[in-house]
Every structure is written in C-alpha cells, then in structure tokens.
Amino acid sequence: LHMGKTMREDLTVVVKYIKQLYPPEFNVFTIYAELYHNYFASEAKKSAESPLEDKDIYLLLSWVHNLYPEDMRKDRALAEELDKVKLGSLLPSSLSKELEQRYLDSEEVTVKKSLSKCLDKEIQRWKEDKEPEKLNGHFQSELLGIFVIQSIYSGQKRAQNISRAVGEELSRRLWKELPVFLSSYREAFEDFKEKSKKHRHYKPILIANINNCWNFREYTEKHVAETDDNRASILSTLGDIENSGFEVLLQQLFAQLK
To answer: Which InterPro entries does the entry link to (predicted)?
Structure first.
C-alpha cells in the first residue's frame, strides 16, 4: 500500500513539474514509470512466490488486477501518460494464473463448507421442539432462505472485485455447487417429512421449507442464465421440495374437507 501510494504521488510530481524540464526525446516520464513499475513488480513477484495465506492471495490478486491498474489512474494527467507507456501487469501471466487457481479452489471449498454447515444447523433446528422462525410474518428459515444465498453472492462479489474473469469462473463453479447442495437439502427434507410426522411443529416446518424455495427460485431466475444447465437442475429440485411439502399439506386439507 505504501509502495503504491508513493509511486502514484511521485509519478504525479514527474508529470506536473519534472517532465517539462527535459527535452521530449528524453522520455522522462517513461523512464521514471518503468523504474518504479519494475521495482514494484519485483516485490510483488517475491510476495507471490512466498508462502501465502488465502487472504494474502486475495489481496495480492486485487493489487494485480484491480488496485494497481485502477488506483494509478485516479489522477487524470497521470492516466494519460500511463496509457502511453503501457507498463503491463505486476506479475507474470503464469504466476498470476497459478494464484488465481489457488484462490478459486480455496474460495470454492470455503463456500461449500459454509453451505454444508448451514444445512446441518437447519436439520438440527428441525429436531428441536420449537416453532420455526418467521420472516416478514411467514414461516421461513433465515439460514436456508437467506444465508445460503448470501454466502454464494458474497463469494461471487469478492471474486468480481479481483477481475471480471475470476468472478465469472467462480460463479460457474458455484452454480455447479448449488444443485448439489439443494439435492442434499431435498434428501434431508424428505427424511424429516417421513420420520417426524408426530413433531409438534411438523406443519409449520413444512411450510417454512416450501417458503425457503421462493428465495432460491427468485435468485436463480435472476442470476443464472437460461442456457446454463444448472438452472434447470436447480429449479427442478426446488419444485420437488415444494411439491413434496404441498402433498402433505393438501392431504390434510382434503381429509378436513371430506
């Protein structure tokens, strides 16, 4: 951070005060910019090749793809000069790709664990002798109806803040994970539905799970492309969960009507 701030401030001084003191053929700004960039790049490479925590990888990739190229151009005069020099990336392409792969793998695992943890906690709640929570006056689980989606969205947002390409790749991976998660959710729901019919809050829990599907459906229809095979899989599984719950509720209703 100190290095980036120093480079930007010093190059701004070169543009405004030093450049005009030399003949144009000296290319004074280019010389300064390349020397600063080469030093910064060598330090970034050292960091990239050292043992890194996940948060360090994220920060370094943010500098390479976002902070460094964008922050340097905050001064308009500086941006114009930098566009002429074309300094390039802070890291070699191969090293940058390696870090991206490590970041994507780590983030994918983190989100998967988060989703699995949410489902485990929700299953545990079903077993408790408590009425399910209400959101906006309706039975619904904050864990499954909101937190799972937030986990996916937050992961995608962090990746997009590195670069568009990294964001798209993580989104592609997570869209594959959501059908897997929902399949596990469906199995757990079916298990509860069959084995817990005497649960004091059986009916409210069924309603809460039907309502959970609405958030997943809305998010999927808004963010997953119609051409994406995962979209059909997600919507199909949500339909299974909803219909399974409706079946029990309607049986009770038909019995009452009869």
So the answer is: EXOC3/Sec6 (IPR010326)
Q: What is the pTM assigned to this prediction?
A: 0.84
Alpha helix stretches (DSSP H) within the chain: 2-13, 28-48, 54-62, 68-71, 76-85, 93-127, 142, 148-162, 164-195, 202-223, 229-257
Maximum CA extent, the chain: 98
**Interval 199-240: pLDDT, tens:** 889 999 999 999 999 989 999 999 888 888 899 999 999 999
Contacting residues for 83 by C-beta, under 8 A, at least 6 apart: none
Q: Which of 38-47, 121-130, 238-247 shows the lowest mean pLDDT across its residues?
A: 121-130
pLDDT digit string (tens) for 137-183?
A: 888 888 787 889 999 999 999 999 999 999 999 999 999 999 999 99
**Which of 229, 39, 69 has the alpha carbon at shortest distance from 163?**
69
Rounded distance, CA 66 to CA 68, Å? 6
Tokens, residue 171: 């989104």
Domains of the chain: 1-91 (no CATH), 96-257 (1.10.357)
> With b meaning 16 or more CB within 10 Å and e meaning fewer, what string describes 35-58?
ebbeebbeebeebbeeebeeeebb
The CA-based dihedral angle spanning residues 14, 2, 52, 72, taken in that order and rounded to the nearest 10 degrees: -40
Secondary structure class of 197 (helix, strand, coil):
coil
